[in-house]
């Protein structure tokens, strides 16, 4: 029961969040989000997606090497594109991460270690994201007013908890011989967070929200932090958080939902190279039945 119940409960919670948002604001903002997406926003999504995927791939190679696994940057970029595409098109939001962990592990003859590498890579990235979010919420003036201290405290607590778990599980031992790895991982993660925040602000502008970037950045980071919660192919917590944040900021919950939909479409378009990688990998496996994964990804 515990093996299957928890994932389904999480997916149902995400779906329920989406349903509540639709009930409160109606279907209009969702349809508006699909209608206002245009060629410039999609081009921006593809360009930003290339940068963020490269940053994630760089972080993955650093973590893999820290765990004694070889992973070329080219293979990491291809594998990460495929991972993001699967995360955004399949329920759960983590299928792509599991897939790249298994693929890398099979290529190295150690699936368990491949999965651990992916878990550490995602976990370290989220720690940096949460720390940046807390800092921005506290430093920049935010339209959320009274909610800022509470939100920043919650985000900071989550970052500290993640760091404690990492230390308790011995993650720090991996970097003793590679002291430069953590600064590089932090830099890669900052690049990824900045890219995702920029994509969100482009989505907001496309949705007709004209607030200044300094006003939008705290909202963007808060929504991106919420988007990491269990979801259904990327949907659910993101729309709920955006509706709440925009409503609290006086920008309107409906505008928030439209922005979230535009962002979702942009993120999907940015991940489309992953579909090409997926089809190409499948074709190679058909030609070479013994193909194991990451080496030719």
Uncertain segments of ≥5 residues (pLDDT<50)? 1-5, 291-297
Strand content: under 5%
Helicity, in percent?
over 70%
Radius of gyration, CA atoms, in whole angstroms = 19 Å
Query: What's the end-to-end separation, in Å?
Result: 36 Å
Mean pLDDT: 83
Would you list the SSEs in sequence order as H and E?
HHHHEHHHHHEHHH
Largest sheet: 2 strands, antiparallel
| Extended strand count | 2
Count of runs of 4 or more consecutive helical residues: 12
The domain count comes to: 1
Sequence of strands across the biggest β-sheet? 1-2
SS-based class? mainly alpha
Instruction: Give the CA-based shape.
Output: globular
Description of the molecule:
With 297 residues, the chain is mainly alpha-helical. The chain has one domain (26-296). The protein has 12 helices and 2 strands; from the N terminus they run H-H-H-H-E-H-H-H-H-H-E-H-H-H. It has a two-stranded antiparallel sheet. The longest helix is centred in the middle third of the chain and has 29 residues, at 111-139. The radius of gyration is 19 Å and the shape is globular.
